[in-house]
């Protein structure tokens, strides 16, 4: 009798909002809490740790692909992930799920 394998080691991020921007021909994304992004942009939320799920800049959040240091320096002029996250939060576009569009 065959068993069905169910992955138990996958970590699912909940309430994830992806904020993305394009710079120097590359795409950069950050994983945030959806409700906190709006608060941050309205200057209600001041603590960036409350907004970001992680202080990591990705090229693709859903695949977990982290942006290369050289690309960050070329696009943003710094490798300081927190400063880059702040810039992406300010200027990037917030991705909205299908359910929220309706």
UniProtKB/TrEMBL annotation:
It comes from Oryctes borbonicus. The lineage of its organism: Eukaryota, Metazoa, Ecdysozoa, Arthropoda, Hexapoda. One of its GO terms (cellular component) is nucleus. GO terms for biological process: ribosome biogenesis. This is Ribosome maturation protein SDO1/SBDS N-terminal domain-containing protein. It is found in: Cytoplasm; Nucleus. Belongs to the SDO1/SBDS family. Associates with the 60S ribosomal subunit. Residues 15-102 form the Ribosome maturation protein SDO1/SBDS N-terminal domain. It holds the Pfam family SBDS_N. InterPro entries: Ribosome_mat_SBDS_CS, Ribosome_mat_SBDS_N_sf, Sdo1/SBDS-like, SDO1/SBDS_N. SUPFAM superfamilies: FYSH domain (SSF89895). Its main location: cytoplasm. Keywords: Cytoplasm, Nucleus, Ribosome biogenesis.
